[in-house]
Structure formats: C-alpha cells, structure tokens
Design a protein that fits this description.
There is one protein chain. By secondary structure, the protein is an all-alpha fold. Helix content is 77%, strand content 1%. The chain has 20 helices and two strands. A two-stranded antiparallel sheet has the order 1-2. Helix 1 runs parallel beside helix 8, helix 5 (77-95) packs antiparallel against helix 6 (101-115) and helix 8 (132-142) runs antiparallel to helix 17. The longest helix has 40 residues, at 394-433. The termini are far apart.
Amino acid sequence: MSIRDSSGYRWYVVWLLLLVFILSYLDRYILTLIIEPIKQSMELNDFQVGLLLGPAFSLFHVLVGIPLGWYADRANRKYLLIGGIIIWCAMTVGSGLVTTFALLLLLRLGLGIGEAVVSPASVSIISDYFERKERARAISLFMAGPYLGAGLAFLGGGLVVKWLETLGPINVPFAGMLEPWHMAFLMVGAPGFLFAALMLTVREPERREKLASAQGFGKAFTYALERWRGFGALFIGSSCNVAISTLALWNIPLFQRVYGWDIAAIGAVTGIFYFTAGPIGTALALWAQKKFAERHIDGSMRVLILGLFIGVPASALYPVMPTAELSVALMFIAFIGKSVATAGGPASMALITPGEIRGQSLAIYNTFIALVGPLFGPPLVGLVIDRTGDPASIGVVLFGYVALVGVPSILLLLLGLRHYREEVRRLESSLVTGEAARPA
C-alpha cells in the first residue's frame, strides 16, 4: 500500500481541503469587518450594504455552481480547485484597489465564481477517498471550514483592521493612497496563492459508487426531482441554516448601532465564538452522527435537525436582547447550533446521491440554499432597515427575519424526515443491485 492509499494520507487531504475552505471564508467574511468604513467612504445606504454582503458574492456563486458541479463530476477536481483559488484570491486583491461601489460589486461577483467550486469538488473528493461508514465523519470535519474561516476573519481581521486604522491612509507604490479597508483586502487575498500550490500534492481519487445507468448532464436534476420529497426536506433544512447564518454578516452594524461596540471588540467576540462554539458544534455533530448512526439510517439528517433546534431560537433572540452581555450569551448558543446543522447538511446529501452525479448534486444543493440565504437575506434585511428610517432597528428586523424563516422550515423538515430515510435505503439498495432504483 502506497502512502497515498493510507489512512494518514486520506486525512491529510481532508485537512488540506479544510484549510482551503477556511481560506475561502476568510476572503469572503473580511468584508463584514470593514463594511462600515466602506459605507462611509462610498456614502452607501443599508440596501447597498446588503447587496455587497449577499448578492455581490452569491449571484455568480449560484449561477456557475451547477455547471462547475457538473464539470467536477467529469474533470480533474484538483485542478478545478486550483483554478478557483487563483480566481478568488485575485478578486480579493483587486478589491483592495477599487474606489467605487460598482467596481467593488463586480469584484465580489468574481469572488463568488472562484469559490463556487470549493464545496462540491472538495466533498466529491473526500467522498471518493472514504468508505460510506467513515464518509460522514470526514465531511463533517471538512464542514468546520466556514466557522473556522469566519472566526479567523473576525478575530484576526478585527485586530488587523483596528491596527490599520491607526496607520491611516497608506501610499502604496503603483496604487497610490489606499484607505485601511483597502489594505485589509490586500492582506487577506495575497497569501492564498500558496494554497493553490499546495493542492498539487493531492492525488485525484477514483470515483466510487457508480450506478449501472449512465448519468449525463441534467441527470442530477432528474434524479433529485424524482425524489423531491427526500431531497426537498434536506434542502429546506439546510436553506434555513444558511439563512440564519447570514446574521453574522450584520453583527458589526448590530453591535455598533445597538450596543456601541467598536470593530475590534465585535470582531474579537465573534471570532472567538467561531473558534470555540464552531468546533464545539462540529464535535457535537460528530458525536451525534455516531450515536444516531447506531440506531438510525438517517442519522446525518437528524444531526441537521438537532442543529436547527438549537440554532433557530437563539439566533432569533440574540439581536433583541436588552444588554450586550445577554446578546453575546445567546449568540454563543446560536453559533453552536448553526455549526451542528452545517456539518449535518452535506453529509446527508452525500448519502442519497450516487458517485457520478455527486458533484452536480452538491452544486444544486449549494445553489438552492444560497438562494434563500446569502442571495436574498442581506439585501432584504438592509431594505427593511432603510424603510424603518432608523438604523438602530436592525435588531428587531433580524429577529423577524429568523422567525419567519426558521419556524416553518423546522416543521417542514420534521415532516420530510421519513422521505429522506426512504431515499437513503433506496440508494443503498441500488448500489447492491447496480441499478438506479426508481422512486416509489
């Protein structure tokens, strides 16, 4: 057995892909820390802020996600990831040189293109490196990336932004005078090119779990639509988790406007929560996954449900607490719940999709959940805040948003759990027979 077939190498690949995932979220979330200086510098309203926080990244992320997922099922996923890293790092560096809202919007769109490949290609690679009994644990570890990346952005980024603000505008050769928020983009974007080089150490794995029938372009849509009850329950639950997770994008304005905190303090607290509550949630998800799997074939889906039961109530309440201390306490619980749910979603998806359409299916999954969360959530919140005429109304607006999205989603997810369970059984049966079982 070669080193590349060993358990140690397989887990090395998981850890490297986790670091790439962390990097993608670091580049994505740095904007939230500097959004208020950008708002003042470019004289933006909260709706424009919402556009930058959500659709500016998510629009192309959604549009190219499915084609890239289809391509990931046919091409070398390693090189696809390398291309994505180079694109998004270039877009982040470019954001550090712009002076207008339109150009920043365009570059954030480009960031979405680069990062659209990360989740489907990485989960597909991990799925082909591990047997089904180990796969959920490996994917759950990989899905700690969003929380660790966002945590690094908030914790380290908050301190960096505060330090850059003490320096004031800096004269950069060939670029001219750059504001502190420009320099923040440059500092987080440039190191990412190293990870593109490290990806060359990853071997493209052989694809597992192919069904006998060929699965061409569009088959992933057909496969999911024919099994819409099981897939639909999963999509709704994961969409709810992503939707409430967008609250973190508004944490800086929330704590500045309502509780009077500065960027460094908010970034430190939020970052610490990503580094503590995030791993706690991931560890809880791994433990729950193991326990549920001993008794239930739908154990990964139950992990998602557990996360929402923890995350939705806490996420709704923390923006409207009368004191910052109570808000922070509930936010910690909300982060744990969202981390649990984040680990459960892709692991659940991997158990109901055959290997040759897994990349496409995960891209469809990511596209769907992005429509509810990052694409529509932030601008909708910003628009409602603008309509109230009071920037300090942000807490009440966020409470209403979580309640309207969270409660119906949990109810629909519970109703659809049995349908998801049927799909897990159906795929396992089809893998034994070698035929794509038709839905009942």
